[in-house]
Specification:
mainly beta; disordered N terminus
Length: 215
């Protein structure tokens, strides 16, 4: 009888070890955001930054009842985002953490159903990041692909310059796309700027200077 009980306990331990935050489950390494809140005055969606690992957050929003994968997705490195919502419209909001290739993505948190009491003001982009490539180690040039906090709807103006002064205007970038610069000199330090063009054809202040260089 003792042998049978021992076997049952042994298998029970194995079963309990397979549940929860298993180190072999990519989602378990990338905790799901909690404490989802919505600030009506600024249409800001926020959550707790208690998830594990480096990475960023993916926010998805749309009409109430929309299916995940069919909403509008935005990316942010912060634990909040001012969504481009319109007054008196209802939305469902979701968020998850993307912890990178090794640790995967968390489960989606949400939905939070909200009623926007105002139309979002023209919000300045809050971050930028870039990847760089070169044809060879001996090449004197490199290419850079720059992305920034993008709401997936608005148009943006971008500038790449060697000056640190904020520009007067920039080149139009299609919503959701990156700015790609080819043939940059490896010996020159560049500065990137980006601003948002809003629904009433006004512009946010430029974000930048954001440095881009080979080394």
């Amino acid at each position: 009888m003792k042998r049978i009980v021992s076997i049952i306990l042994f298998f029970g331990l194995i079963t309990s070890g397979c549940l929860g935050d298993s180190p072999y489950d990519p989602q378990a390494k990338c905790g799901t955001p909690t404490n989802l809140t919505f600030e009506k005055g600024s249409n800001t969606f926020s959550w707790n930054m208690n998830t594990m690992g480096e990475g960023y957050y993916e926010v998805q929003y749309g009409e109430p009842g929309f299916s995940l994968g069919k909403g509008t997705t935005v990316v942010t490195y912060k634990n909040s985002y001012s969504l481009p919502l319109y007054q008196n419209n209802k939305y469902d909001l979701y968020v998850r953490k993307n912890c990178g290739t090794a640790n995967g993505r968390s489960n989606w948190a949400g939905p939070v159903t909200v009623l926007a009491s105002s139309t979002t003001t023209c919000v300045q982009p809050a971050y930028a990041t870039y990847t760089k490539t070169t044809s060879s180690a001996l090449s004197s040039t490199f290419d850079a692909a720059v992305s920034w906090e993008n709401d997936g709807i608005s148009a943006y103006e971008t500038v790449l310059t060697t000056s640190s002064a904020s520009p007067a205007s920039g080149e139009l970038a299609v919503a959701g796309q990156k700015a790609v610069y080819i043939g940059l000199s490896k010996t020159v330090n560049y500065n990137f700027f980006v601003r948002k063009r809003c629904a009433d054809n006004t512009y946010s202040p430029f974000y930048g200077p954001y440095p881009i260089k080979w080394n």
